[in-house]
Specification:
TrcR; about 200 residues; Cytoplasmic protein
Length: about 200
């Protein structure tokens, strides 16, 4: 018999927001269907549910999450703990439902204006998933016709400090790998957005 975490749907919300796990991995751990997990990520269901942190509540370890993030075929293993102790999470604050709907716009903005950012960096910056990023990029998102690139700092999805740090880290990573730093489309450079890529000093 499969042991499910406490508050499976709320746990799924947290895993979607805070990790790069696949929908299938989250679904199997929470006893849900992958399409239901995808619907939560897209903001179609579970809009009033606050994420439940399985790490703070001793149902998962961060090491276990990292192990499964590195291997899409791996399955999360729940900790055998009788009564999880509730503790305040030290992680980022839960993203309000209204802002969750704004995430595709923020993703589109980063893909367009900061092409040096990798999917994993966008995942951490906006609390989204690689699947959602791919759908926004390929215009396969369920709400694609209405997605408009908007600055994630302006709409409250991340701070300017975090955005600058992510762009700087991505630029340094590409330089270390000997790759060319991609530039935004020429039209954007002529009408530069408020937030430009921070310079990287030698």
């Amino acid at each position: 018999m499969t042991t499910l975490p406490l508050m499976p749907k709320a746990t799924a919300v947290w895993l979607i927001e805070k990790t790069a796990l696949s929908f299938t991995q989250i679904a199997e751990f929470c006893g849900m269907h992958p399409l239901e997990v995808q619907a939560i990520a897209d903001g179609e269901v579970a809009q009033g549910i606050v994420g439940y942190d399985p790490v703070a509540n001793r149902q998962l370890t961060q090491e276990e999450i990292s192990r499964c993030e590195a291997n899409p075929d791996a399955k999360l293993k729940i900790l055998s703990s009788g009564n999880p102790v509730k503790r305040r999470s030290k992680g980022a604050r839960y993203t309000p439902v209204a802002k969750r709907h704004d995430r595709p716009d923020g993703i589109a903005f980063l893909l367009r204006n900061f092409p040096q950012l990798g999917d994993q960096e966008i995942v951490k910056l906006l609390g989204t998933t690689k699947d959602t990023i791919a759908k926004v990029r390929n215009k396969q998102h369920w709400n694609s016709p209405n997605i408009k690139p908007r600055d994630p700092v302006t709409i409250g999805l991340c701070s300017q400090t975090d955005l600058n740090a992510a762009v700087t880290a991505a630029t340094l990573r590409l330089e270390r790998e000997g790759q060319e730093i991609p530039q935004p489309p020429a039209a954007l450079l002529e009408d530069a957005p408020e937030h430009t890529s921070p310079s990287v000093e030698d």
